């Protein structure tokens, strides 16, 4: 750390934070007698806190965001230059970085053609839901308005997004929710024994068929869209089973249901392709993205659609209701697309998709070794540098390890200077998966350091 803040400054910052900041997803009671972690500086894969302690960040800013790592001068400079020249204008007008990033992004998404800017994953998903509802009104007399979401998936924090939330602990105490959202079963093969009738063979197709059952029960003429994460994130790092996605696509086409893929976590390189769905040959109608789009250097989210979806909103210029009547004030900030252009260029110039594929495979192997060494590790899974390790007390029954002990593993790693994550306030009784999502620049040495910290922590907590 370069020491630009004195010990005095730092102690004032801690006091000010404790007195006035309400932190996200945090219990504040313990901070009456201890201090929150305050991050002062970041460089590459590492961050330093108020005590000057160095940490290796294995979760890209805790929530799968800083894909290209910390301290990227070229992004900072692009944002500086852009906001000095033209910082903002509302989205009914265009901006230079808005146009250029949209062009670049669409170049990575064959079949897609239009980019709607906003500033958080939740907001992008809300907009997709609004489009589905408006299409239902314009084409189907309001009938085809239901939106299907999947058990264990998460789409954001607003009441609308929580209505499509498949993680019951996250939703608890925030209801009532919006009507017209319907849950379909998850596709976590490791827990297929908990699903009635799940077969040993062709589980993926079976899991997709459960979606069709819900559609038939609801009535296909009432279902407008299916919203899915390509690889489920906070619900347990669930990579889809073989055969799942092709069948999902077939079902959507069969019943004229829009396929909305939530790439808020997977998007822009996390799994080793530009987008998670591109592993599975899927052709979505709508794709939402946020976190990694500008790696947290500026707030930006996008809802990307096909030209077919776009066309549905511009058929009659004399009709005052015939367009997407949505507003996003901060969707007009130019810092977002300016940062996103450089973020994407870094991924290309440094060949980070390949690195993600290679290092992801390496990390999955190394986590596999932990599974051999520790009976408590029931399953390791994921895609690219987006990995999880599910902890169970018994490999036969797959009973989950209690959450306090999962937290103890995370705490032990933190004490060693390695920041890892765990599913939390997510699926009731299933907050038992350790989460890893190092920046796409991770090296073998970084991964070895992460795995060795987890190895030590598992030994101490469960030894
Ligand atoms: C899959 C997924 N979708 C949407 C969101 C919401 O994004 P945001 O927090 O930017 O609103 C998240 C956040 O974690 C997410 O994991």
Summary of the model, kept short:
The strands form 3 sheets. The protein has a 7-stranded mixed sheet with strand order 4-10-9-8-7-5-6, with helices on both faces. It is of the alpha/beta class and 463 residues long. Helix 13 crosses helix 14.
Computed CA radius of gyration, to the nearest angstrom? 22 Å
What is the string of SSEs from the N terminus onward?
HEEEHHHEHEHHEHEHEEEHHHEEHEEEH
Shape: globular
Under CATH, the topology of the largest domain can be stated as: Aspartate Aminotransferase, domain 2
Category from helices, strands and their pairing: alpha/beta
Q: Could you tell me how far the N terminus lies from the C terminus, measured between alpha carbons in angstroms? A: 35 Å
State the CATH class of the largest domain: Alpha Beta
Q: Number of DSSP strands?
A: 15
* Number of structural units classed as domains: 2
- Estimate percent helicity: 25-40%
Low-pLDDT runs of 5+ residues are none
Question: What's the helix count?
Answer: 14
Strand order of the largest sheet: 4-10-9-8-7-5-6
The average pLDDT value, as a whole number, equals: 97
* Proportion of strand residues: 5-15%
């Amino acid at each position: 750390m370069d020491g630009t803040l004195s010990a005095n400054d730092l102690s004032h910052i801690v006091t000010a934070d404790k007195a006035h900041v309400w932190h996200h997803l945090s219990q504040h009671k313990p901070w009456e007698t201890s201090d929150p972690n305050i991050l002062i500086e970041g460089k590459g894969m590492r961050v330093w806190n108020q005590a000057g302690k160095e940490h290796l960040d294995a979760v890209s800013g805790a929530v799968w965001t800083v894909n290209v790592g910390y301290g990227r001068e070229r992004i900072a400079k692009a944002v500086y230059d852009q906001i000095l020249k033209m910082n903002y204008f509302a989205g009914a007008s265009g901006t230079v970085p808005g146009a250029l990033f949209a062009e670049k992004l669409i170049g990575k998404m064959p079949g897609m053609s239009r980019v709607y800017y906003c500033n958080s994953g939740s907001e992008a998903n809300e907009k997709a839901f609004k489009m589905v509802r408006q299409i239902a009104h314009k084409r189907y007399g309001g009938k085809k308005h239901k939106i299907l979401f999947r058990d264990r998936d998460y789409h954001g924090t607003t009441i609308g997004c929580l209505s499509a939330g498949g993680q019951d602990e996250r939703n608890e105490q925030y209801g009532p929710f919006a009507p017209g959202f319907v849950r379909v079963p998850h596709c976590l093969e490791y827990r297929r024994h908990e699903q009635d009738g799940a077969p040993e063979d062709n589980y993926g197709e079976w899991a997709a068929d459960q979606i069709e059952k819900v559609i038939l029960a609801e009535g296909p003429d009432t279902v407008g869209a299916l919203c899915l994460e390509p690889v489920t994130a906070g619900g347990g790092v669930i990579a889809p089973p073989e055969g799942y996605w092709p069948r999902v696509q077939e079902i959507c086409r069969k019943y004229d249901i829009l396929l909305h893929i939530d790439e808020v976590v997977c998007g822009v390189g996390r799994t080793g392709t530009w987008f998670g769905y591109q592993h599975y040959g899927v052709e979505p109608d709508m794709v939402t993205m946020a976190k990694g789009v500008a790696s947290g250097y500026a707030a930006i989210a996008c809802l990307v659609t096909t030209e077919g979806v776009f066309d549905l909103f511009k058929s009659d210029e004399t009709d005052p209701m015939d367009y997407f009547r949505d507003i996003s004030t901060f969707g007009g900030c130019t810092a977002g697309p300016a940062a996103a252009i450089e973020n994407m260029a870094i991924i290309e110039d440094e060949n980070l998709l390949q690195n993600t594929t290679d290092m992801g495979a390496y990390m999955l192997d190394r986590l596999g070794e932990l599974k051999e060494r520790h009976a408590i590790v029931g399953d390791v899974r994921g895609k690219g540098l987006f990995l999880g390790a599910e902890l169970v007390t018994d490999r036969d029954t797959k009973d989950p390890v209690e959450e306090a002990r999962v937290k103890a593993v995370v705490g032990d790693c933190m004490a060693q200077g390695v920041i890892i994550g765990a599913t939390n306030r997510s699926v009731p009784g299933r907050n038992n998966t350790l989460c890893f999502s190092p920046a796409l620049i991770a090296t073998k040495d970084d991964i070895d350091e992460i795995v060795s910290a987890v190895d030590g922590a598992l030994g101490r907590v469960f030894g």
